[in-house]
Input
Amino acid sequence: MAHPRWNRVFCWFCSWTICATLSADVLAAEQDNMSEAVRHARGLSLAFRKAAETAMPSVVTLVAKTKPDPDDLRRLLNDPRFRRLFPQDAPGESQEGQGAAEHPTIPNVGSGVIIDAAGVILTNNHVVQDAEEVIVRLQDGQELKATEVKTDPLSDLAIVRFKPDAGQKLRAARLGDSESLKIGDWVIAIGSPFELEATVSAGIISGKGRGIEKIQRGRLLQTDAAINPGNSGGPLVNLDGEVVGINTAIASSSGGYQGIGFAIPTDRAKWISQELLTRGTVRRAYLGIRIEELTPQAAQKLKLAPRSGVFVADVVPGGPADVAGLKVNDVITEFAGERVRGPRDLQDVVEQKPIDSKQTLRIMRDGAPVTATVTLQELQESSLRTRP
Output
């Protein structure tokens, strides 16, 4: 019979062996999990890299040179707080107190994306608006003067043409399907924030169908990919390297990145750019009505789901909607087969339809469904900012 002490030693040895075996198994499992996690991380990193490599050659930096407004400059020069910064002579004045010398141009730096290898760039209107000269800086550092600029302030989009050197091969970006994007999809933003060219930042699609005061027409994509001054006009790109948006604005209390950026969806940018290229301006269809949001209280009273239509607040006499029989307090729930959730939804789909085309509307009137057919007309300058 073994001595009790040897029995205790044997039991301790067995316990140690079992624990060591279990620890080795746990460690091996953790290493396997870690390896799998690293593989996933490297896979995502590779996807970002490939997307950037695909899109980067099509991204340009734009330097738009504008002259300051003489009235604004004069007010600044006459401001005592500004003049105190210059103890001798105020800037722009000679020592004899004569008038101001010719004012230099002020550069505005933004981004753009080549959509045609013949020399066509898509960018933001606010990047090139009122510019006396626009310089296109390519990825290799070459600088070329723009030959033509066409803008659409209402959508904040613009087309810039330039003439590549003979034999120069440019790469046009692939324009993707922005409508297929889902909230949570990975995207990268490419541009020249703070003049740091070829900068890439990553994030996700944070929201769709957004509206901001700065852009009067169209729904926007929201992203948390870093967008800063200088990113404007650059592309928002999916993991396939396709452009799905044009970076245009940020929501910020500081003026810098705070995690909320906006991009114009490519599906809308395709239409705007085609209009600018073929006509030089954007023709928009309209119904001739003023619309308002359908509030949750009103939706409940009408037995409709929230955000399932828009109120008709006013009808232009003799306009398309008036001719079609629409009335104040009608609720438009569907247009041309597409559901209407809010004013920008209706505005967006209406204005892209062909002028003079016939379209079907579904309406709730006094609690009953009504169908109407409207013949669209062209939106005139006097109505541009108020009516869909």
